Amino acid sequence: MKVTKYSGELVHYDEQKLINSLRKSGADQAMAETIVKEIESEMYEGISSKRIYKRAYQLLKNISNVHAARYNLRTALLGLGPAGFFFEKFIAKVMKEQGFQTKVSITLNGKCISHEIDVLLLKNDVVSMIECKFHSGQDAKSDVKVPMYILSRFNDLKDKKYDLFSAKRSISKCIIVTNNKFTTDAIQFGECSGLSMLSWDYPQKNGIKDLVDRFRVYPVTCLTTLTKAEKDQLLILDCITIKDLILHPDYLKTIELSHNRTINVLKEANQLTN
């Protein structure tokens, strides 16, 4: 049977790939196989991968909110748009979990022009700049023009010293981050030019999805117990991750959640981080 991908391309349906994605969410083998069997009974030639994903999410949510939240991670990252400003803040949180000091949205004067930097990092006396490329559609990829453009910005900044993190420092490293994927040419050019690349699934076993799971730094947009409007309200309040919510549960009072719903949201949040 053929499945229509987000890009419109027709590919062969891969049962094992669907099972693996469900297992990664925390579902056991029996649970994953039961969900897949239900989905396959409803499938037809040319069914969209989006429809399969949505049905899998619904069935998973009936069993476990936490598994559904993990399964929903890639879509949850899209919820940090459409402009991507919240995605930049989220990436700063991911880096902070790894021991970096961070600054978000800093403007610096380069050798030729001024530049707004999405995220600055400091660790082991090394300052890195992060440039985020946010895509609001799941099929979009960052092509080779992205690292080429960002390399020129980095070159304009790296030879100067700035007042950063309470000292005069230069920027010696550049990292390009996207919520989706890079094309092969983009990765090849970036690596050849000394840029670091981070995407949904790159580097292998150390992409965004891996870092989020490893450090339990899930965005609030993956919570199944909140509506989209409520998630948007939390983002505006600067509550970006589930850990932010656990540390400051009063955010839920601010958005006027009932007592019972607050209990359910915090229960899901704590289960995800544990």
Would you write up a description of this structure?
Keywords: ATP-binding, Nucleotide-binding. The chain has 274 residues and is an alpha/beta fold. 46% of the residues lie in helices and 21% in strands. The protein contains 13 helices and eleven strands. The relative contact order is 0.10.
Which secondary-structure class do the elements indicate? alpha/beta
Counting DSSP H or I runs of 4 or more residues, the number of helices is: 13
Number of strands: 11
The rounded Rg comes to 20 Å
Protein name: ATP cone domain-containing protein
GO molecular function: ATP binding; DNA binding; endonuclease activity
Domain ATP-cone: 1-82
Pfam families: ATP-cone (PF03477), Mrr_cat (PF04471)
Tags for this model:
274 residues, alpha/beta, Trna Endonuclease, Chain: A, domain 1, 3 domains, three-stranded mixed beta sheet, 13 helices, 11 strands, 46% helix, ATP-binding
In short:
GO terms for molecular function: ATP binding; DNA binding; endonuclease activity. 46% of the residues lie in helices and 21% in strands. The protein is an alpha/beta fold and 274 residues long.
Question: Helices, strands, pairings?
Answer:
Elements: E1 2-4, E2 10-12, H1 15-24, H2 29-40, E3 47-48, H3 49-63, H4 65-71, H5 73-78, H6 85-96, E4 101-109, E5 114-123, E6 126-133, E7 141-142, H7 145-157, E8 161-164, E9 167-178, E10 181-182, H8 184-192, E11 196-198, H9 208-215, H10 228-236, H11 242-247, H12 250-254, H13 259-273
Parallel strand pairs: 1-3, 6-9, 7-10, 9-11
Antiparallel strand pairs: 1-2, 4-5, 5-6, 8-9
Helix pairs in contact: 1-2, 3-4, 4-13, 7-8
